[in-house]
Design brief:
The complex is a heterodimer of chains A (112) and B (112). With 112 residues, chain A is mainly beta. Chain A is built from no helices and eleven strands. Chain A is globular and about 40 Å long. Classes of the chains: A mainly beta (112), B mainly beta (112).
């Protein structure tokens, strides 16, 4: 079935350290993998995405890696800052891109 | 950060009552989606619509209904058959040829 698993559910890091969140998906036909950041009481915001024809994408302190063979992808945040504290969701596309299925989310806390 | 407007921000439902959540977008997006968010469970798809006058059930459609009479509007009705309606409801939309999904600011529904 359509499924996205996300780990860990909570993550605490010291300011300046790196944070890594991992997701796995079930359908080998999935070809689009976005990451969203959601602050308390606000809407999810797209922070980075990757398509299946590339293995890595970077945007300043954020990077995403994709392993299509293993069907998993990861979010890497370097030099974390207190404002990075939020809930992060991964997602994978299904039904030829018509649907996004989300992971359960990771609560990231950056301690200063 | 407009584009997708959800109203109301907070909504209360009495036992046996149907309530309707509004979602309007001025982005000229073809596809619209409704997600339900519960703590620790990520975003679960309720209904989605690729074009006007057509929609499909998502993973948790029972107890909900939708309509898509206009491209800009995709209202969600939470019926009395939905026994556990308390949740944060998010509407989203995307252009037909683009995977990027944009969210509204959400409606918090609670039961009196």
């Amino acid at each position: 079935g359509e499924n996205v698993e996300q780990h860990p559910s909570t993550l605490s890091v010291q300011e300046g350290d790196s944070a890594v969140i991992k997701c796995t998906y079930s359908d080998s036909a999935s070809n689009y993998f976005p990451w969203y950041k959601q602050e308390l009481g606000k809407r999810p915001q797209l922070i980075i995405d990757i398509r299946s024809n590339v293995g890595e994408k970077k945007d300043q302190r954020i990077a995403v890696t994709l392993n299509k063979t293993a069907k998993h992808f990861s979010l890497h945040i370097t030099e974390t800052q207190p404002e990075d504290s939020a809930v992060y969701f991964c997602a994978a596309s299904y039904e030829y891109g018509n649907k996004l299925v989300f992971g359960a989310g990771t609560i990231l806390r950056v301690k200063s | 950060d407009g584009g997708i407007t959800q109203s109301p921000k907070y909504l209360f439902r009495k036992e046996g009552q149907n309530v309707t959540l509004s979602c309007e977008q001025n982005l000229n997006h073809d596809a619209m989606y409704w997600y339900r968010q519960d703590p620790g469970q990520g975003l679960r798809l309720i209904y989605y619509s690729q074009i006007v006058n057509d929609f499909q059930k998502g993973d948790i459609a029972e107890g909900y209904s939708v309509s898509r009479e206009k491209k800009e509007s995709f209202p969600l009705t939470v019926t009395s058959a939905q026994k556990n309606p308390t949740a944060f409801y998010l509407c989203a939309s995307k252009a037909g040829n683009n995977e990027k999904l944009f969210f509204g600011s959400g409606t918090q529904l609670s039961v009196l």
